[in-house]
């Protein structure tokens, strides 16, 4: 990857120590609300890198306007990227001590960033996640409050099984109702949908694993951090919300279907199992049985309900599911054949340290090296592996 070299801004007392890297999760419809929440509710200086991967024209134009107005760096790919591909693109551009990976459908609360940074500095943590809620009303129902993730040996008679243990804390609880139970705690599992990471940990880990296309990237990162003796914390003084509203616009449908495609999930599960030398057990069998469930629950079953009304027509349901699976395979195959995805970089000549009142600036535009597959073009060049 190549980029235009720009003169760094002068070091001041307000020089940011953290860069926020925004990456697509599964859709684009919440882009504006998410970005606005970051600028409205972040009270300390920060840099921001936005990775825009395959968004529709109106989102692309919106982000270009906001990059010019607010002074953040915009990386644009005309093709869809997996979350880890997008995160690595952002990671390759940062120079600050800390990076926050955040998905483009996260709505942050007031003062969300300071507690994460404070926790990281006080504990020397490699990664710190906030209290993550889900849905509306915002910041109400808990989705993730840290968790446990480890590999253990399960001895059953003469057989020894190498298995994955995973547990998530306080799922679906009311944040207000259990406020007294929310405190900073060490954990073994954070979610990359919103997590602050100490940049130098990547000197030990290398970049995020791009072979994990659609699932297991959070657990893989956490197992790697634990193996490197890094600490992780959940800091509930910081609160954000994942807003999973899915529109029925085609502009959201294409990426959503690829993001949760059977191909991406199967390849990710198989690779994860092999990478960590895990035995095939009920954990993986259950995941394979649930292939396509997210797509079906979000789009297919609501569509069938409208078609069938109050009646359930089994033959129609079977046909629609088979058709969807066939179309999903075509979509995933088509994306897999793409070998070139130019990454366009928009970055201000003099980025503001806090990006609070940045006037319109002249932007430099350069095209990063596009002569490689997406899984290769986003390898960071900031640190050795």
From TrEMBL:
<dbReference type="InterPro" id="IPR029044">
    <property type="entry name" value="Nucleotide-diphossugar_trans"/>
</dbReference>
<dbReference type="InterPro" id="IPR001173">
    <property type="entry name" value="Glyco_trans_2-like"/>
</dbReference>
<feature type="domain" description="Glycosyltransferase 2-like">
    <location>
        <begin position="26"/>
        <end position="132"/>
    </location>
</feature>
<dbReference type="Pfam" id="PF00535">
    <property type="entry name" value="Glycos_transf_2"/>
</dbReference>
<protein>
    <submittedName>
        <fullName>Glycosyltransferase</fullName>
    </submittedName>
</protein>
<keyword id="KW-0808">Transferase</keyword>
<feature type="region of interest" description="Disordered">
    <location>
        <begin position="341"/>
        <end position="385"/>
    </location>
</feature>
<dbReference type="GO" id="GO:0016740">
    <property type="term" value="F:transferase activity"/>
</dbReference>
């Amino acid at each position: 990857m190549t980029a235009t070299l720009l003169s760094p801004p002068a070091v001041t007392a307000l020089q940011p120590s953290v860069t926020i890297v925004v990456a697509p999760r599964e859709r684009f419809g919440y882009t504006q609300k998410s970005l606005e929440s970051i600028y409205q509710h972040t009270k300390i200086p920060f840099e921001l890198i936005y990775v825009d991967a395959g968004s529709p024209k109106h989102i692309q134009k919106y982000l270009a306007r906001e990059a010019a107005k607010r002074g953040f760096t915009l990386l644009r790919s005309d093709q869809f990227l997996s979350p880890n591909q997008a995160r690595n693109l952002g990671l390759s551009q940062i120079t600050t001590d800390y990076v926050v990976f955040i998905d483009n459908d996260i709505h942050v609360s007031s003062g969300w960033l300071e507690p994460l940074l404070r926790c990281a500095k006080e504990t020397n943590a490699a990664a710190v996640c906030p209290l993550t809620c889900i849905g509306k009303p915002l910041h109400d129902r808990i989705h993730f409050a840290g968790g446990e993730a480890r590999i253990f040996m399960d001895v059953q008679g003469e057989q020894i099984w190498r298995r994955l243990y995973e547990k998530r804390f306080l799922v679906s609880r009311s944040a207000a109702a259990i406020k007294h139970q929310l405190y900073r705690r060490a954990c073994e599992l954070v979610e990359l949908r919103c997590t602050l990471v100490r940049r130098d940990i990547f000197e030990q880990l290398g970049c995020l694993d791009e072979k994990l296309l659609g699932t297991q990237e959070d657990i893989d990162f956490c197992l790697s951090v634990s193996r490197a003796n890094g600490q992780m914390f959940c800091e509930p003084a910081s609160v954000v919300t994942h807003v999973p509203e899915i529109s029925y616009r085609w502009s959201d449908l294409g990426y959503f279907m690829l993001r949760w495609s059977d191909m991406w999930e199967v390849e990710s599960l198989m690779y994860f199992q092999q990478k960590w030398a895990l035995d095939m057990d009920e954990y993986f069998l259950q995941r394979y049985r649930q292939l396509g469930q997210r797509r079906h629950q979000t789009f297919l079953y609501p569509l069938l309900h409208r078609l069938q009304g109050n009646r359930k027509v089994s033959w129609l349901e079977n046909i629609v599911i088979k058709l969807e699976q066939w179309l999903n395979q075509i979509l995933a195959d088509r994306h897999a054949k793409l070998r070139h995805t130019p990454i366009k970089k928009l970055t201000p000549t003099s980025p503001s340290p806090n990006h609070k009142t940045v006037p319109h600036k002249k932007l430099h535009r350069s095209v990063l090296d596009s002569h490689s597959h997406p899984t290769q073009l986003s390898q960071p060049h900031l640190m050795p592996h």
